[in-house]
Amino acid sequence: MSVSGAEIMTVTKILSNDYTVKEGGAEFVAKARGRFRSKGTDICVGDRVKVVFEGGSAIIDEVLPRKNSLKRPFVSNIDSALIVVAKEPKPDMLLADKIILNCFVEGIKPVLVYNKCDISGPDEDIFAAYSPFMTCIAVSAKDKTGFEALENEIRSKTVCLAGQSAVGKTSLMNAILGLDLKTDGLSKKISRGKNTTRHVEIYEALGGKVMDTCGFSMLTLVNIEPDELKYYYEDFLPLQSSCRFTACSHINEPDCAVLAAVESGSLDRGRYLRYLEIYKELKEERKKAYD
Ligand SMILES: Nc1nc2c(ncn2[C@@H]2O[C@H](COP(=O)(O)OP(=O)(O)O)[C@@H](O)[C@H]2O)c(=O)[nH]1
Ligand SMILES: [Mg+2]
Ligand SMILES: [Zn+2]
């Protein structure tokens, strides 16, 4: 590592204005140039950055183009998002659907991880609704049920654990890595103020990288037209050609095959109602943007 030269490194942790950057065996706590602290140009965990050294300090000088990114959790350059739900706390499937939508828009593989299976088996309705179009695995951080499948989703990849507070993200991280990170579902308290939603940390595991993130709630936060929403519902796509109208949005059009599938019970009603909700939110966001 040359002192005067620049290095391309990965941001692995952000606390206030301290950015931990790593590459190979090297690790520094860097500051970022002022221009990266204004809204919309923030650096996130997962970013590949150019680090320069000035007067003995590491400075982030440039952020390389992102392969992809999520807004919440705010991370970049990931292969997949492990969306964790559990019997307790009650699953927030609207949040899960929004993360799944973000994943499909960004080309990230979403995986549904149903944790705490030692308490009760996985929710059959959730598996029936989601397993037709995405990988769903049932696990327990407590007794390591399902860990072979879970580890296969992590091996040699960069993945992020996402989902509500207290579903067991940090516990899963601990069980996978044999670590002892604080697990009370309240880890968000360790970061301050506006950084709460972006406290993320990367750990190396199974030849890959895992990012533990905090619980959060989420607005829609994808930049798509409401009428494009249907293209990111892989469970609706095979039905599209059976709708009467080619441009059917599956909202209130006559002879809609998606609605018919909901009525007949072959598509999950909850998933469809959340689709309507997200569609409505996207419409409202558009309206705000153009008002
Ligand atoms: N019974 C059971 N409890 C779990 C499991 N995983 C996590 N918990 C508990 O759920 C609570 C929240 O876990 P934590 O890992 O902090 O959740 P996080 O907020 O998603 O990181 C803790 O009390 C854990 O002990 C599990 O597989 N089984
Ligand atoms: Mg946690
Ligand atoms: Zn339709």
Notes on the protein architecture:
Strand 2 (18-23) and strand 3 (26-32) form a beta hairpin. This protein is globular. It is an alpha/beta fold and 291 residues long. It is built from 6 helices and 13 strands. It folds into 3 domains: 7-63, Nucleic acid-binding proteins (OB fold (Dihydrolipoamide Acetyltransferase, E2P)); 69-213, Rossmann fold (3-Layer(aba) Sandwich), CATH 3.40.50; 226-290, Orthogonal Bundle (Ribonucleotide Reductase Protein R1, domain 1), CATH 1.10.40.50. The chain has helices at residues 93-106, 124-130, 147-154, 169-177, 257-264, 269-290, and strands at residues 7-15, 18-23, 26-32, 48-54, 57-63, 69-70, 75-76, 80-86, 109-115, 135-138, 158-162, 200-205, 208-213. The protein is 23% helix and 26% strand. The strands form 3 sheets. Strands 10-9-8-11-13-12 form a 6-stranded mixed sheet, sandwiched between helices. A 5-stranded mixed β-barrel has the order 1-2-3-5-4. Bound molecules: guanosine-5'-diphosphate, magnesium ion and zinc ion.
- Our measurement of the CA-to-CA distance between the termini, rounded to an integer number of angstroms, reads 52 Å
Question: Can you summarize the main beta sheet?
Answer: 6 strands, mixed
Radius of gyration: 21 Å
In the CATH scheme, the class of the largest domain would be Alpha Beta
- Strands of the biggest beta sheet: in what spatial order? 10-9-8-11-13-12
**Fraction of residues in β-strands:** 25-35%
User: In the CATH classification, which architecture of the largest domain applies?
Assistant: 3-Layer(aba) Sandwich
Topology order in helix (H) and strand (E) letters: EEEEEEEEHEHEHEHEEHH
According to DSSP, the number of beta strands is: 13
- List the domain count as a whole number: 3
pLDDT averaged over residues:
90
